[in-house]
Amino acid sequence: MGTQVLPDAAVMEALLSAAVMAPSIHNTQPWRFRLDPVGQVLEVHSAPGRTLPLTDPVHRAQFLSVGAAVFNIRLAAVHQGRRPEVTLLPDPRLPGLLAAVRLTGPLAPDERTSGDGLYEAIARRHTSRLPFTGRSVPEPVVAEMTAAAHSAGARLHVPDFAGTRRLLGLTTTAEARTNDTPARTAETRSWLTAPGAVAPYGIPVTALGPPDAAGRMPMRDFTGGPPVPRPPALWFERHVQLALLWTGHDRREDWLRAGQALQYVLLTATARGLRTSLLHQAMEWPDLRSAAALPGVKRCHPQLLIRFGYGPDGGSTPRAAGARRW
Ligand SMILES: Cc1cc2nc3c(=O)[nH]c(=O)nc-3n(C[C@H](O)[C@H](O)[C@H](O)COP(=O)(O)O)c2cc1C
């Protein structure tokens, strides 16, 4: 175990700034941070008030989001020359304490940056809900994304044409079901923010994307239909590039690992010049989530669909400043 180094305020600030840039379901930012003054440990807690009771009743998507924030903390710690030791769910008596990050180090100069551009990608990554060009992503880049998921304790499957059609079909079914459930659309809509509103959470309407004019790409309709306006339909890429993030188990720690893997994949893609967006709708209906499992794979728990490719950047979304409590 490395020498413990007291984290100074600037280091902690850098860690928290990186953490909150993570993606989160509906931009709920379901995390809170606390510096344990005795152990010099950065604690990552769930934020009980920022949940989606209908969309995410077991908090799986919340854990994915928090896992993504933990991955950013790890990258920022290394960038600051510290070694992060992460313990997931460190105290069974505190179910809301999702991770503890102890900083040890300092790192040797050659350990400080890996030159992979991941830390720099944290601020550049945005969800892009716009049509992509359809240009094929080179195999080595896809292999890098797959390896990233694997090294973070999850799996990434890039389906062939038939598999892509199957997963898009399940997502289309999920999207239709959600839109037919008024309580669900009301919950989603409550996380949309109007232009000019000063709201630290939720998705500004400016970050929403259009529907697909061809009706093939089931982008999530956050508006729930009129009277909230949605951008006019556009033609999405015919050559859809999707990846299914999955895990071999489906426990709370697997969701946190999957969240870290998600962020590792998204940052790898961003660092290589790709855009990404997420399709989570099928994961929100248990039968459709099961149906999304890979045929022939014994233990496959689907966690999220990632759409990737080349195209325009997405709009930025706000982040709350007051996520810390010490
Ligand atoms: C678990 C999870 C599920 C998500 N599901 C969707 C989705 O179904 N559709 C979508 O457009 N965005 C989805 N997102 C993206 C969030 O809306 C986005 O991360 C958030 O609004 C913050 O914006 P940013 O990613 O540009 O920083 C999801 C994000 C996470 C972490």
From TrEMBL:
Organism phylogeny: Bacteria, Bacillati, Actinomycetota, Actinomycetes, Kitasatosporales
Protein name: Nitroreductase domain-containing protein
Matches recorded under NCBIfam families: Rv3131_FMN_oxido (NF047509)
InterPro entries listed in its UniProt record: Nitroreductase-like (IPR000415), Nitroreductase/BluB (IPR050627)
PANTHER family assigned to the protein according to its UniProt record, in alphabetical order: NAD(P)H NITROREDUCTASE RV3131-RELATED, NADPH NITROREDUCTASE
Source organism (scientific name): Streptomyces hyaluromycini
Superkingdom of the source species: Bacteria
